[in-house]
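Catalogue entry: protein
Contents: sequence, fold tokens
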Amino acid sequence: MTRKLLSLTILLSLILSHPAESAQAAPKGIEAKALDNVPAMSLTLTGYDNAAVVTERMEAMPLHSIEGLWRFAAEGTLMAIERDDSRELSPDEAGTMVYRMVIVNAADLSLRPGTVMGYLSPTAKRGVYDARIYTGRTDTATTLHSPKTCTLTLSDSDSRLVIARYGSSLRFNWWRLLPYMYSRLISRREKSPGNIDGCLRVFPAPAIPAEPRYL
């Protein structure tokens, strides 16, 4: 058992430290230089104590198509996507829109509301976003680190958000990244089930409900 755990730990270290070996380079046309300098460790922000607080703030402002409250379909974590006006961009990045993904209610209670789990920026293709999502945790399990490159794609009239790593055949379960749970950190896809990893829109009310009612 100890030998297997050691082998898996070494494999994990290689995957996270050399992402190019498990994922292809970003497709041509996707340029988000503003995401190249995201914080190495997740920040914890105020104003995300519960969904009602976030909803009230969002109701008072015009929202972009990606903005709102989203729930991870696989395990229930609720997150907010909002414009990030706090980051200073260089002159050649002027006009670039950056959003942040912030936890409102995590399935794992060790992650506090307000924890930033990633950043994203629109690409040249409508509804497709370049993102940096944190994939590791500190030993205390309360802070995220190791941002990895992903794509987020709006689908079904902007009611669903599909998350994928570039060219990766491994599924990253970021919400399970506890130091002692190596067996759940990564899982290999035997057969591709299609674009099923992602989120369902909670607010504003989606045009296509997750569970439509039929008369």
